[in-house]
């Protein structure tokens, strides 16, 4: 048993960078946890708190710890070790029968998975030890001064609570409430010595730590989903809510008074404890409010306690939000003269309040409905004021405000014909809660009466009406959609990064730039939501009459675009250099807003005429050659407009669009080039793509130059000019799509691609692995385009396939194997002959098949392609051994679908290469016979297996086929009497389980071959064979069918098996011809009646086979 002195020394040594010192210490700590978890946890707590424990610590050790100065990093490591150890050892016993019954047998499995390298503790923590440890952890958490250690202790407490609450720790939340000063102290002061915790809660630090513990415990318990756990959690929230809400309201009142005092100059001190407690209190309130409800599905009932609580709370939160936002302007003007702690209140507070109100509105829209008008008013102000562009939280607040407005606009429950009849009027809304909130915060009854409780005004108030919506949209276009000075700076510094930041909505760049881009994305989504809302209103039978069945917001956006186009046409200051002007930026913003709503504006904006006609058309913007930022911005926006409106581009205008995009593809500004590349990618992948538009139509517009070659060179230039992965991926994907859609017409450009692919593949090794995946796609499409000329790419393609399918490089294999196998398949299907280089890849198939069945379908398809391409040569040497290993690894290891695919590949191997396959695969064929003879397989599996044997029956006896060869294979299977069993199953359950008419005919004619070769077992099943032959004759139309009987008509194997499947249909290449030639000579396509008559005649029409007289 380790005492706290030993644990203290080991923790200090575990921090050493020297492995010889650190490793023994780590092993000691692991052994101590395994040997006696309770003592180990007690020792960790002693190191953290400088106090002795009752688990064997000597007085000398306790004195040494108490008097020594424990380094901060050792105490921090002890907190981390405590948290991680609780996860591993707390559940492992000591919980009594109740815990065992609750967690069942999975508890031990989880403990072993998370334990010390699979070890389980030799001792379990007893219930009384757990009680002492829980109390010690709680005391340590509420008395810890340093914030990071307090957080780790709170997390450890949360892990314990997840396991012990409520069965083994029923008074958890009473103790937490006492620790946080939320009441409950009188109920717990006599239990487990909680009086000390209650006394400690009188200090500000203890109260804040108590709030921290409550927050993390609630966060952990909220993830439990069992009904009993949810019920206990809801009860705990109900216990904590009244005091938590009251205390936070009191703190909010104090915060507002403190902020006003700072602004008035009556105080220069910052009440940091009040600010921190208010911050943590808001987290707890948010958790209780949004995760403490019984069931969000019951939100439609306004009489539930949860609905009443939300109706009372949300107006107060709205008032707090208004109060803080109203004080942000003064704070920003004088922030340098005020303490930084105010930033927590005025920058962090509005964001969290908006998030809380937004989440409440999304989860409980009915209960939050009363506060929505007031919050929307705040959101409108926050998203259009000067503060919305500030870097000190204003942009983030504006983004959240627009997100809230978007969720409201998208909530169908709010906008029915009677949804807002009882909503408060605008006048009532503005006169209600803010004043009373500032006068006396916490007056929930009065606030509910004003902002969310009762009758409201006499007239309904519908948000996003036409005047409000149009004013809001114009404001956010000017504030957030239009390019700002910060955008210009970012563009000029790094055009490539700027483009991707714009396209991703703020996923990169600095924090300020990211917030600005999030604002722009939120603004676009809000505009889209409002336009869609008014579209629904205009089409509504009840609401459409009020707006004349017209989407006035969409009409406003259209007018905004037309006005901007007309203004720039008259702007003489927008000269040849393309410098940015007000009219230029207005047109750019209008194009952006209209493009964001392209789907909903399709019947308002005549894109066909905007594309080519009138002032400031799309083609006019694309033709701007000025180097100024204004011209570049318009060129880029025109490219993005083409991508957004691609479905509305008239067919007769597509050639002109391709030609207009070509100069932008090679633009010196990468932001313009990448936008043009995005537009080209969208055009190519559109369903209306026509290669003639791109090659011939565009040629006429660019003076006879080859448009295809120009685009290929431009795309390769983008890849070489850019540095970011997103740019490379976009260029390569567009190139792959271009080659794919052009098909054989891309042959003239393949040589150009082949000259750069080796260098691109080599450079991609130094970049993201996903870039190689896209290069494999380009190689595949290029291979398919070249067709029988594809061997010219083998020097590039085959090494890439080998490298990408190497299991010894697991990262590459996981990311590239799927696409590499598709490329491999395209290479084989396009190749005219089997070269030695192709056959050298065959052994890799065996490695892939033996690894797992994940790529079984692709591996079997490759085997088929090799056999069709090389014939008997595929089974010579290493190639034959590899194919044999593939089948051996799959027989009996796949489900019915996989077995069917495997048997089909095996059948094709025997059919296409009878001499090589039957000899090389004799062991596999014996296992197939054993599989059938076992009687354990389904009828479907037996049917596919019997088809393989039918192919062997058609094979000449001198190469191991025919009846004699099958009998020999049956003898080698090791099953006594295997062959008669197989023959009986062949025409019994195998024939009945085969759903395909061509393969049923194959089974019947294969059995007839055995009859001709005088196989005794086959002669014994003449009667079922007769029925099978008659059915095959009826399915092929050789025999008439009875009236009213439906018979599936048999198609030939050439039609049945020659086609591609799924994504691989375009990769067939020359393999289509090889399949057609093979199946044209298939004996299974022979007429059934004449073949049967000839067979009986060759045998002399013996009486034993009279049943076969069809």
UniProtKB/TrEMBL annotation:
Q: Which domain of life is it from?
A: Eukaryota
What are the record's GO terms for cellular component?
Answer: cytosol; nuclear envelope
Write one Gene Ontology MF term.
small GTPase binding
Task: Please report a single Pfam family linked to this protein.
Answer: TPR_IPO11
The record's section on InterPro entries has: ARM-like, ARM-type_fold, Importin-beta_N, TPR_IPO7/11-like
Cellular location of this protein?
Nucleus
> What's an example GO BP annotation here?
protein import into nucleus
Q: Locate the region Disordered.
A: 97-123
Coiled coil ranges (UniProt) are none
List residues of the Importin N-terminal domain: 25-143
Q: Which family does it belong to?
A: Belongs to the importin beta family.
List the protein's name.
Importin N-terminal domain-containing protein
